[in-house]
Amino acid sequence: MLYPSVPAKYPPGMNRFDAIVIGTGQAGPPLAGRLTAAGMTVAVIERKLVGGTCVNTGCTPTKALVASAQAAYTASRGADYGVLVEGVRVDMPRVKARALAVATSSRLGLDRWLRDMKGCTLIEGHARFEAPDSVRVGTDLLTAPRIFVNVGGRPFVPPLPGVDDVPFLTNRTILELDQVPEHLLVVGGSYIGLEFAQMHRRFGAKVTIVERLPRLIAREDADISEAIREILTGEGVTVRTGAECIRLGRHERGVAVFLDCAEGEPTAAGSHVLLAVGRRPNTDDLGLEKAGVATDARGYITVDDSLATNVPGIWALGDCNARGAFTHTAYNDFEIVAANLLDGEHRRVSDRVPAYALFIDPPLGRVGKTEAEARATGRRLLIGRRPMTRVARAIEKGDTRGFMNVVVDAETRQILGAAILGTGGDEAIHGILDVMNAGLPYEVLQRAVPIHPTVSELIPTMLGEMKLDT
Ligand SMILES: Cc1cc2nc3c(=O)[nH]c(=O)nc-3n(C[C@H](O)[C@H](O)[C@H](O)COP(=O)(O)OP(=O)(O)OC[C@H]3O[C@@H](n4cnc5c(N)ncnc54)[C@H](O)[C@@H]3O)c2cc1C
């Protein structure tokens, strides 16, 4: 076993703490750090792996795998760069071992930090509320006047017809594969599904994405969806959108997804199927009803702008509060709660500028509103756009796929949103994010002098060429 079990350190009868943290995702551990530094005794309860989703089955291993897939892709394109590489072969056990090593190192570092933290007691087990100020872990009852819930989420398995009749993969179990699937079917054409689809294609699998909606990653603007579809199909991924009535069944090749699309075959057959249709919060077995904590219809804990629940003394942080679905939003939840509780500040979630990335290659960096969302506000808009074919750095790097765009309020001069789909897009977007966070007009960025040759250097040019949206 990679992970040593965590013994309860506290003596029997000493179960009263100043604070309890349930879950060791992205918010709980740093919050325990701040609370103990302020002199509080803190019980941190974890039912599985310290570090939660990001460290163990989310960002860390998947981005390590994306890096391996990128290495395979670049090697296969070596001749384009004048580098002759013969017989590119992917050694999946080594790819997997590398991702596991990166994740394990991160987990063990966090584990050690929590164990050595003065005033912190790390407890292994599943926590359930017994009352607003008490939580049961096995036979132990812990009490505290402050309880912080950081329980995250898990893969949502949709009730598709046939789902019980076939073996399927989730974003968690696909990490355990020792071999490249012969043909991977990915049900769900959104963030998680697309990253796995491209990565496995680059490892050598045939890949088919099946998406119910008319386009991939439908929360983004239509031109982003289309460009991403082109990137994926350009690498040989088959994309089936508008797939109604998705059903699963056994097939001589392994597993089949039956679908009813506007065009194409009614069946996609493959060796493996990944269900990547979203996540659900880990709140269904938390005893929330005993504490009186309110949730929405999907089980997400209802919180106010400071992340307090309806029950005084209980806060919810991270993915389980539906105010974010990312590592950086969960961490920011910690910063907000810690600043308000310990520093006398009044920080709010609504002050956060939404930003995220889709880590296909080239990646999509996103901030603020999409063009469609900006138009829906009814404001007069300035819109800028530039293809990566007109970005010197992209040409030099040999990857001109994608484009960047920006949308600005024509009256206030504030940037409302932007997307950079292209090489370095996940990093370059931060220039725009920083200006939005500072609340500065777009001219500040337009007049900046960025470094040449970078993707960022074209952002001022794009801002200078914006047109009024008609
Ligand atoms: C495949 C994948 C890729 C991702 N990639 C990215 C990315 O690139 N960038 C990004 O920003 N985000 C990414 N995410 C999202 C990111 O992982 C989460 O947003 C992040 O982990 C924040 O989660 P959290 O802090 O809310 O809780 P989690 O990290 O989910 O941790 C919750 C913890 O609580 C524990 N727990 C749950 N219930 C109980 C209980 N009753 N008692 C005790 N312990 C309990 C769980 O075991 C878990 O350890 C990805 C997610 C997935 C699935």
Fold and architecture overview:
The structure is a single chain. This protein has about 475 residues and is an alpha/beta fold. The protein has 13 helices and 23 strands. Strands 18-19-22-21-20-23 form a six-stranded antiparallel sheet, sandwiched between helices. It is globular and about 65 Å long. Residues about 1-10 have low confidence and may be disordered. Flavin-adenine dinucleotide binds next to strand 2, helix 2, helix 3 and helix 8.
What secondary-structure arrangement, pairings included, does this model have?
Layout: E1 19-22, H1 28-37, E2 42-46, H2 52-56, H3 59-76, H4 92-116, E3 120-124, E4 127-131, E5 134-137, E6 140-143, E7 146-149, E8 153-155, E9 183-187, H5 191-203, E10 206-210, H6 222-234, E11 238-240, E12 244-251, E13 254-260, E14 267-270, E15 272-275, E16 279-281, H7 288-291, E17 314-316, H8 327-342, E18 355-358, E19 364-368, H9 371-376, E20 381-387, H10 392-397, E21 403-409, E22 415-421, H11 425-438, H12 442-446, H13 458-464, E23 467-468
Parallel strand pairs: 1-2, 1-7, 2-3, 7-17, 9-10, 9-15, 10-11
Antiparallel strand pairs: 4-5, 5-6, 8-16, 12-13, 13-14, 18-19, 19-22, 20-21, 20-23, 21-22
The protein binds flavin-adenine dinucleotide (FAD).
Flavin-adenine dinucleotide is lined by residues 22-27, 45-49, 52-54, 58-59, 62-63, 126-127, 150-153, 171, 192, 282, 286, 318-320, 325-328, 330, 359.
